[in-house]
Amino acid sequence: MQLSKARIQEHNQPLLASHQLRLNLLSEELSERGVAVRDLIQRLVDFQVAIPSWALGTGGTRFGRYAGVGEPQSLEQKIEDVGLLHALNRSSGAISLHIPWDIPENAAHIKALMQEHDLAFDAMNSNTFQDQRDQQHSYKFGSLSHTDAAVRKQAVEHNLEVIRYGEELGSKALTVWLADGSSFPGQRNFRTVLQNTYESLREIYAALPADWKVFVEYKPFEPYFYSTVIQDWGTSFLLANKLGDKAYTLVDLGHHLPNANIEQIVATLLMEGKLGGFHFNDSKYADDDLTVGSIKPYQLYLIFLELVHGMDDPQTNNPPISYMIDASHNLKDPLEDLLQSVEAIQLAYAQALLVDKQALEAARADNDVVGAQEILQNAFRTDVRPLVREAFRQAGGALDPLGLYRKLDVRRQLYDERGVGIATGL
Ligand code: PSV
Ligand code: MN
Ligand code: MN
Predict the structure, then answer these.
(1) Which of 134, 277, 318, 381 has an alpha carbon 20 to 30 Å from 13's alpha carbon atom?
(2) Measured from the CB, is residue 288 less than 6 Å from ligand 1?
(3) Where are the beta strands (DSSP E) in 257-387?
C-alpha cells in the first residue's frame, strides 16, 4: 500500500494547533538557553537511519518463530514496507539487504521501485552463518576463518557475489558479520583462525569497488559460547587497520558484554576515523535486539553525544556513518516497532544536540564534576518530542507516525493483501 501526501496532511491538520503550542513553548525556553532551534530541527530532518530487510518480519529467537500477519514475502514487498515507514516519518529513507534472503532478480525493476518510494540502498550484508541449499561446503565449523581453505574460498566468493549484487543496485558498502567461533576450550587455535579471517577479508577487500567500504562487525558470543573470532571492537579495529582505508569497524549496540562503555568505544573509533557503521537496538542481557531506547535510553543519549561531538569536531577525520536499526523480535508488529525505534533515535539525537559543548568543555577543564553532569542531565531531561514531531512534519511526514499507522489499520490492509506467513530473514 502507498500512503499519499494528502492523507498525511489530513492526519496532521487537527493535531497542528496543539503541536504548535508545545513547539512554541519549548522553542522559547531553548532559545533562552542559547539553542539555535531552527538549525537543530534541520539536523533532525536530515538524519536518516536505514531499515534492515530482516526487521520487517517477526523476528527469530533461538526457540522458534511465530508467523506474523501481512509480513512481506518478497523483496518488492519489503521495499514497500520501508517506503511506508519513510512516508510516515521521512527519517528511514534507506534499506539494508541481506544475501541470499533478498536476491534481486531484476535490478532495474528494484531500483525503479526504490525511486518510487524515495529510498536508497544502505550496506549489503553477507551471510556465512547459515548453510544454504545446494551449498558445497558447510559453515558448521566456520566460514572466513575455517581450517579448510576450500570452505574459506566458498565464503570469500559469497561475499564477492554480494558485492556484485550491491553494485547492480547502487549500494556502496558491504557489512561482514561472522558467526565464526568455538563453543569449547581447545576447539580452535585463536591465532590461526584470526589469521585465516584476515587473509579471507583481504581477498574480499581487494575486490571492493573504489568507492565502496567494508564494515567489520564484532560480537562477543552467540551463536558460539566459548570464543568468537571477531569478538570485540579491538579485533574489528585491528582487522580494519590492517585491511586499509576502505575498511571500518561497525558497532552494534547489542554486541557487547554487560556494562561495556559503548560511548567510550564510539569516541575512540571516531578519534581514529574508523567508525563506519552503526546498528541500533536495545538489550537487557545480550544481543536481545529489542526496540531502540526501550531499556537504556540514557546510554543511547550518551552515545549520541559522542557521535554528535565527535562528528562535529573539525579534528575528526571520520566519513559519514551508516546508521541502521538492527532489531528483530517476536512480540510486536514489526512496523510499529520500527516506528518506535526511529523516534527513539531522533529523540536521543535531539537531546544530544541540546548540549552546550562549550559549557561542557569549560566544566571539564575546571574539573567541575557536578557541573558537567548537570549539563548532560538537563539536556536529557528536556522533553524534545515537539522538536522531533516538527522535524517529521517539515520533512513531509506525519506528526504522529504511529498514531496514523494505527488509525489507517495498516496491518489489517497488509494482511488482506498478503495473508499469513513468515518473511525470509532471521
Ligand atoms: C547477528 O547477531 C546479527 O544480528 C548481526 O548483528 C548482523 O548485523 C545481523 O545478524 C545480520 O547479519
Ligand atoms: Mn548487527
Ligand atoms: Mn546481532
Answers:
(1) 381
(2) no
(3) 275-280, 322-325
